[in-house]
Amino acid sequence: MTKLSILIPVYNEKNTIIEIINQIKKSWKEAEIIIVDDASSDGTQKILAKINDPKIKIFYHQKNQGKGAALKTAIAYASGKITIIQDADLEYDPKDYKSLIIPIEAGKAEVVYGSRFLGPHRNLLFWHMVGNKFINLFANVLYNTTLSDLETCYKVFKTDLLKSIDWKAKRFDFETEITAKILKKHLYIYEVPISYAGRDYSQGKKIGAKDFFHALWSLLKYRFVS
What we know:
The protein is 38% helix and 16% strand. By secondary structure, the protein is α/β, with parallel strands linked by helices. The protein has a single domain (4-224), classed as Spore Coat Polysaccharide Biosynthesis Protein SpsA, Chain A (Alpha-Beta Complex). It has a seven-stranded mixed beta sheet with strand order 3-2-1-4-6-5-7, sandwiched between helices. Helix 7 (174-184) packs parallel to helix 8 (209-224). The chain is globular and about 45 Å long.
């Protein structure tokens, strides 16, 4: 079984963090789980402190920096052949790992994205859907590609490739910067359908309108600069 490194950026997810860890363990027993708590203030850190598992590495940021910064910390410790990014909530299902890594194991791809729009999913927030569609269109025009879900959490990489990319984004604009830099390497991104159970703001969703504009700016900027 392929050794996977699962990177989990965490911020205020006390209600879901243990459940997502348990789901990962059930789906992929040999997974190396690397958690970076991004200065949670809701008690998540107390929960993490009680975990005693040699396959789980936990690191803490002293101040909140964002998803991109948490992933930057996490990737340095990844030792698996393939790395998967996993949010700490329950929107994404680790049962999809198998289909996500097949293109890489088959030698068809170095990068795979799990598309929420190709697979079964709970109805999305309308304006989030519109924003996603526009970001995808903007990226496809700029980079001459046909992505359906650039902003998906489920991004899967050959670990050596992800380690080789020096991204600057500290927050949610990680999604667009990493995609831009992959496409500029002339690597094709393989998409597979995934299931998705989206949550709303009352359930802890954090991405907002300003992240939409940061995403567009990031795509435009990295089209023309390194």
